[in-house]
Amino acid sequence: MTEPLSNTTAAVLGMVVLGARSGYEVRRGVERSVRFFWALGPPQIYAELKRLERDGLVEGRDDTRGARPRRTYEATAAGRAALRAWVGEGGPAAPLELRDPELLRLFFAEADAAVALAAAMRRRSEQAVERFVAEIEPAAARAGHDRPALVARFGRELHEFIAERMARLEAELARPPER
Amino acid sequence: MTEPLSNTTAAVLGMVVLGARSGYEVRRGVERSVRFFWALGPPQIYAELKRLERDGLVEGRDDTRGARPRRTYEATAAGRAALRAWVGEGGPAAPLELRDPELLRLFFAEADAAVALAAAMRRRSEQAVERFVAEIEPAAARAGHDRPALVARFGRELHEFIAERMARLEAELARPPER
DNA sequence: CCGTGCATGTAAGCAGTTACATGATTTC
DNA sequence: GAAATCATGTAACTGCTTACATGCACGG
């Protein structure tokens, strides 16, 4: 109700709903999952937690240890409802945004530089696949429901596709220019 | 030389090297090509053009018509060299960044909301494919060399892949949960 | 001439990133 | 008990986006 959540706000709220308790846990959780299609820096996370608490979507409790301040959170019923509402918002699909310096380089590359760029992009995606298999998919499998696992699988498959595509491009570019 | 170019600077310089003459032409060019993996707003474009001129990488000429100010640009030899140097920079591949609100929704979706999200993502990529075929690939084909065309083809194929993957996901999610 | 769309550019504000600061906890 | 690593958070800067302002060209 009230205002619909922003995507960034929803991401933080979502992590709390899925079980993250401190800002730090949200941060770790983001790093092993959501980060691949919605990046968030620490300051954003802490700022959103404050706002969420102010709006009653999460409940905070002081949990200072010694001299180190620490605050833990738990989602409220209102918070869970707001997250569901955000997921269900209708409207046209927001655009997917891609941002890739290497693709930009390739766009402007002269013929002789292109193969190396394709190879670099292939290697990059191969490493991403490894990271999905080793870290992200296992973490997703431990989540409460199975949408995180589906999204993680999609991420891996996307990078597999890119790696394969770039390998093909390397081959095309390496072949002596036909005609 | 001096400092290596930032990606955004290089994008604008690159468009000028490829033939864009006014800020407006850069803007249009970006919209039909680079925008799909490196978005740029108007203020950035105009700001970069000023900086590029100050640094001697493009040469500007006043071309005011009546009361409307207008400035046209042309790449200098130093500019073309700087672009080549930027393309050839070694170092580890910069990461690909993806940012997608719908994928974020899917991640946090409860079971009943998931199919609709997958369908929305499929349609979105289908439309992107149409746009690539109708606008972006033809424009890329008219560029000076053929790397733009390769990148455009990759963009189309990427969205074809996503559309197909989401169609499959819809089918999986619609099937009554097995076991 | 008058409206509609194209061309050209700017102001202001928020979101996001980089980098750091510091205390607890484990390891050797 | 010193060093390394984990945990927790913040300050300061910058880039980008949203939204607008305005003039010219051309069809009717």
Walk me through the structure.
Two copies of one chain form a homodimer. By secondary structure, chain A is mainly alpha-helical. Chain A has helices at 7-17, 23-31, 42-54, 77-88, 101-108, 111-141, 147-174; strands at residues 58-62, 71-75, 97-99. Chain A has a two-stranded antiparallel ribbon. The radius of gyration of chain A is 21 Å and the shape is elongated. Chain A starts with 6 loop residues before the first helix and ends in a 5-residue tail after the last helix. At the A-B interface, α1, α4, β3, α5 and α6 of A face α1, α4, β3, α5 and α6 of B. Chain B binds a DNA duplex (28 and 28 nucleotides) through α2 and α3.
Supply Rg of chain A.
21 Å
Detail the poorly predicted runs of chain A. Answer: none
The secondary structure category of chain A is: mainly alpha
Question: Could you tell me which chain pair has the largest interface and how many residues each side has?
Answer: A-B, 57 and 57 residues
The tally of beta strands of chain A, per DSSP, is 3
- Give me the number of helical elements of chain A: 7
Shape of chain A: elongated
- Strand order, largest beta sheet of chain A: 1-2
| Straight-line N-to-C gap of chain A | 64 Å
* Mean of pLDDT of chain A: 92
Measured by DSSP, the beta-strand proportion of chain A falls in: 5-15%
Order of helices and strands of chain A, N to C?
A: HHHEEHEHHH
Largest sheet: number of strands, sense, barrel closure of chain A: 2 strands, antiparallel
Helix content of chain A: 55-70%
Give me the oligomer status: homodimer
